[in-house]
Amino acid sequence: MSRPLFLRIVEALGQWSGYFTQRVDAVNRQGLSPLQKCTAAIRQLATGSCADELDEYLKIGETTAMEALKNFVKGIRDVFGERYLRRPTMEDTERLLKLGEKRGFPGMFGSIDCMHWQWERCPIAWKGQFTRGDQKVPTLILEAVASHDLWIWHAFFGTAGSNNDINVLNQSTLFINELKGQAPRVQYMVNGNQHNIGYFLADGICTGTRRGKKGY
What we know:
Layout: H1 3-16, H2 34-47, H3 55-58, H4 62-84, H5 90-102, E1 108-118, E2 139-146, E3 152-160, H6 165-171, H7 176-179, E4 188-190, E5 193-195, E6 199-201, E7 212-213
Parallel strand pairs: 1-6, 6-7
Antiparallel strand pairs: 1-2, 2-3, 4-5
């Protein structure tokens, strides 16, 4: 994470809640700084560090580190959720389609793929349902859609690692608007044929679906 982005998050969370500000206790001693609390939370999220590992260099106890993590996640959702954790608006959709057409893919909404995150502390009783033969270890699957400028506008996380990409797609919320009849309609020409359903660039077995196409 870049320093400017980190400081922007710290500042925004400080405005959101007094928890992420420098405070003093009853005897006028300085408490933990917002930098310490945000660093502790990000370390746990980004590297899987245990809360009790952070005391040595951050001087923050296990209980406080867990509290910081919970407040950090809630703050990120409340402060940035409306802008980043949302579906594309009609304006966003038009922009994505224009970008796709400009790059030689008319009708494309973005690129879709699934990745496996290793679950190191998966309970033994659950390992079978979270392990796939090609992965060898228990995993959780993240399905994401991103535009070329790395705007990740869809993320579906938590599916058991034993699933393949098609199984994940069938459980995903990605096409919920289409099922409701609310999906944006598009019109574009490919090889002289008119199409009115957008698509996503994909690889593997997803290219066999109605909305997945492979780029060559």
